Amino acid sequence: MRKIADIMTKDCVTVTADENLYQAALKMREHDIGFMPVVDGKKLIGVLTDRDLVIRGYADKHSGSTSVMEVLSDDVQTVSPNLSVDEAVTLMASMQIRRLPVVEDGELKGIVALGDLAVRQIFVNEAGDALSGISEHEHRESAWTH
Fold this sequence. Notes:
Layout: H1 4-7, E1 15-16, H2 21-31, E2 35-40, E3 43-49, H3 50-57, H4 85-95, E4 99-104, E5 107-113, H5 114-119, H6 124-145
Parallel strand pairs: 1-2
Antiparallel strand pairs: 2-3, 4-5
């Protein structure tokens, strides 16, 4: 049985609590990503998404010099590197999330994303099922807002 540690991205681009929204946005652009763990040393303290930057950052009239701590998401679902891929897929589908920080003893070890499952052709059907479940949920939500 494959474990998350076998497929996770280990060399994650991160941001620290000392950095500001502008610096985080530059890192996202430079690395073409929309999700970054916020760390203190190796300890995960939250995550920052491109959506966080827009909705809780700039749309709330925070300047680019605002600390990432003002807009990060700190109620983050994490998983252990020893979790099975099957369990991670089930969790991602049930919680409607696309990325999971992998944490051990409070320290960030990596990130696993639905794309990791598909790109590595591991459990492609399960990744597709999870993405399908997330997309259906997002479609229902957007239908409610229109």
